[in-house]
Fold:
Amino acid sequence: MKRRTLFQRAFIMSLFFSVIMLVGCGKEEAAETELVINQSQLQLQTRSAEIKTNTNDIVEIEERLFMTQISDIYYNFDEYAEKTIKVEGLYGKEESMIDGSALNTVFRYGPGCCGNDGWGGFYLIYDGEYPELDDWIAVTGTVEMEHSGQYTMMYLRVSSLEVREERGAEYVER
Structure:
């Protein structure tokens, strides 16, 4: 058996300790990440509880939690079905995944698979005249869900729609 030099032994030992340190740091980072996630979930649960206990049954979608609140409505639809929703955003049109028809929307851009290429908002059911594309609109209505095959789509049945001069953030983070 070959004898290792002092340099080789020192190198192997330092490599061994470096690996141990990296693994230990990884566990600390994972614990910190889990703590941040748990705190975020608690904040979202607290915020959702505040929204759901609103005494006048009006939920105003806030700019700083735009995507979060819309996701909460989607995933907890039964808790919002009787509430009035107020939301501001861009007016747009999307192609229906179900039949290819044009769907009117109020939305904002947000996180997606490749940066800020996603969007969140509501499809609109409205009997009035729609504004120009990319107008900033304030919409009030009640939320509805439609299930069609593999798709579940969330709509806002509009009771009022106004075009606003002052615009909010078109791109939101959460």
